Amino acid sequence: MRDKNPKAFTLIELLVVVAIIGILAAVGVVAYNGYTSAAKIATSKANQKSVIKWVTAEAQKCQLGIDSILNGEITCGYISSTINGGGNPAGKVVLAIEKALKGKYKNPYGANYAGFGDEGVKEGGWGNTRDLGYTLLNAGGGTGYIRVSISVCYKLPCSGDKWDNPGDNVIAEVIKWYP
Known about the structure:
4-stranded mixed β-sheet, single chain, 18% strand, alpha+beta, two-stranded antiparallel ribbon
C-alpha cells in the first residue's frame, strides 16, 4: 500500500523545475551580454570625450601664457618656436599627450592588440579591428598650427578617414592648436 502523505518531489516535478531554471538562465545570459556590450560602447565614447576636453583645456593654457602643459611633458614655448621655425611639433605633442594620460584610461574591450595592451589612450592606429575601444591620437599640421585627431572606434567594423570622414562606428574630432 502507498503512503498517502508523500514527503518528496516526483521526478516530473524536478524536471519541470530544472527546465524552468534553464530557460531563465538562457534569457539572463543574453540580457547580460547586451548590457555589457552597451556599457563598453558608452565607456569608449565617454573616454574619448574626456580626452578631448582635457586636451582642449591644455591647449588653451598656451593662450593664457602658461608654458608647461600636458602634465609637464612638453612646453608651449617648444611648440611655438617649432611652428614659427617652419616645423611641425604635432608628433611630439601627441606622444606627450599619450605619456601624460598613461594609466588614466583603460580600453573597455581589454587588450585587443598586444602592442597597445589595455591602455585606453594610444598614439597611432586607424581603421583596424585592433583599434576597437582605444582612444587614438593622430598628428597632423598646417601652416602656423598643428592638429590632433582624437578618435574612437566603439563598435566593429572600424573604418573611415581620421581627419574628415570617419566610419559609422567611429567618432573623430580634430583639435587645431595655435601657438
